[in-house]
Write a structure and sequence with these properties.
- This protein is of the alpha+beta class.
- The chain has two domains: 1-49; 61-133, no CATH class.
- The protein is built from four helices and three strands, in the order ααααβββ.
- The protein has helices at 10-48, 51-57, 61-64, 69-76; strands at residues 91-99, 114-121, 127-133.
- A three-stranded antiparallel β-sheet has the order 1-2-3.
- The longest helix has 39 residues, at 10-48.
- The radius of gyration is 30 Å and the shape is rod-shaped.
- The protein starts with 9 loop residues before the first helix and ends in a 5-residue tail after the last strand.
């Protein structure tokens, strides 16, 4: 508010300072809320694009262990690597997981090796172990 001569009064300055301080408080609160949300979003995006996700969630280890190799093949499809023996012999079969790549396409931590999800089964065809590894014999 201005008095009759066009000058700013002390009440006007106090009001402006209060409005400015309230605005700054709101901006700080918004920044405090958005920063963790942005961090969580980035962490989730990196996790779902990571090897951890590809190795551990593509195939359900808890479901696979203790099942017959035929049940596993029925659920997940034909094995990519190694033939399954249905004649009473133990063995292992594998599914293709991924081929490594550099971090964010920069060449940093480059790994071009192929990884397979191996499934070991006993003479009765029951799965007792799973693991991730490079191809055998290569």
């Amino acid at each position: 508010m201005r008095d009759g001569e066009g000058l700013v009064t002390g009440a006007d300055l106090t009001f402006s300072a209060e409005v400015l301080e309230t605005r700054r408080k709101k901006e700080r609160i918004l920044a405090m809320l958005l920063t963790p949300l942005i961090f969580i979003f980035i962490a989730v995006a990196v996790f779902y694009n990571s090897r951890i996700y590809k190795e551990h969630f593509k195939y359900d280890k808890a479901w696979i262990i203790g099942r017959s190799i035929a049940e596993v093949e029925e659920r997940y499809g034909e094995f990519y690597h190694n033939a399954v023996h249905y004649d009473g012999a133990s063995g292992e079969a594998a599914y293709y997981l991924y081929q490594g790549s550099s971090v964010f396409g920069t060449g940093l931590f480059s790994d071009n090796d192929v990884r397979y999800y191996y499934i070991k089964y006993d003479e009765n065809g029951i799965v007792y172990e799973t693991y991730v590894s490079l191809p055998k014999g290569g």
